[in-house]
Design brief:
Length: 541
Amino acid sequence: MKPMVMANTDAEFEAADQAVWTEMARRILKGAAPDSLDRTDEDGLVTRALYPVDAPDARAATAHLLPAFPHRRLVEGWQVCQPVGSDAANADIHEALGSGATALLLQSGAPAEIGQLLDDVVLTAVGLGLEGEAATPAHYRTIIERANAQGEAADRLDLDAGLDVLTQADEGLALHAAAPAGHRLFRIDGWAQHNLGLTAAQELGYVLAGVAELFRAAESAGIAPADIAGRVSVRLALPADMFAGIAACRAMRRLWDGILLACGIDPVPVRIEGFASLRMMSVLDHEVNMLRTTTALLGGAIGGADAMAGFGHDLLTGETPGARRTARLAQVLMMAESEIARSLDPAAGAPFIESRTDDLADAGWSAFQEIECAGGLTAAIKAGMIQAQAAAAATAREARMRAGEELLGVTLQPTGGMPPEILAAFSAVRRPAACVEALRRRTAEFSPRILILRGATDNAVAEERGIRRWLGMAGLQAVTLDAGSGSAVSDARPDIVIGCGLAALPEGVEAGNFRSAAAILDAGDRIAALEDLLVPKGDAR
């Protein structure tokens, strides 16, 4: 068998500079400038259609933003985290460890119960993290005692106490002197704030403000910030936009280095946990959540997250063991078959990624400075500043969804039926899909008989296509007749008549029952326009 020889691209393709690419784009756009495709995100950051190609020496100077422990990443990959809730048993933990999980996040239970959960688990062989009710010094000490009872040295544990820098700083600082050097005591959780609505830049600003708050608390306790910097882990949200996840992880490392430099602290690595976003999920066509989660985790993998957690596609309505297993194995496949972990910062040098990383880092620093100007993170939360930011961003996001400017998979692949109710634990998550789910529930309560009357104008077919798409998203069905069908309209006995390409009210149709497709499609709130169809008008039936 002859050895495979890679093709020489220089021999296959002519050299192309920026001017050639720009001219090619102009031809495709029929004379329009490439920047006509530029888009601005909710942080005001521009994503361009074309980016200038840096000179080779500039690319070589690009600083790589590496995982916290690059050598471990190349050998073991990132940690696949499995959250362990109050309903979990020891058997569930062993099942998770046997099907992909390499780290456990213990969320609840008394210290004694934590010990029972970890029966027959070799604690030094897995990553361990505490959060929620389990993130206390008592739980932390219980795990250390259990390791000692197993004959394992506590300093060999990969342990994250998960203490909140805002409410448990004093407790964590009290543990600092006796805790082994490798243990992380504090976690700053941007993921939770993302789910409440914060934008990507605001999330990074929140995390950085948490770091500053911890450093100030350490100084007040007589501990040098440099001694506490290695005790920190950061949790970031990974959205369905893979590139956003890549940029977020890389920008966080740039910001971390920046705040250490500003404080005069020698660089130390920060552990980044990437958690799949909850606000991106929908309970309509919920299998699509598997795709959202996979692309989210891929962004974290390429961005260099040190640990990641995905969630079952049915999480919002009650996560099943099979769904949890699928979320874990998606990460195992990335490492075992795609070998993504074999490359450190693989996106480095790409003009798009580098520009997006820089822009997001700058915006995150500005968000951090805004919090600092308000007196720091504790003061900002007490004043309601962070809550207001999250609410405003979530409201603006929903408004774009309602106007048709931001789409979810559910809007492109509508399915029938009543959407299930989400669990109370997730009711505070600001999900753009929630407004679509609420519309579908109203449709189930009152599903009107809808007739589409199609005129003979050039735009009638396009209007019908557009209105059917939105009706399908709402779970509504419609029958189409050509305008001028005579008695067929009255025979159909419609509750609502929607006119496509009609300039005037059709004969025999009551004004109260008539809607213009153009008016619905042009509405600033299309969801509200569809909700209006669900209100009975007269006694048409």
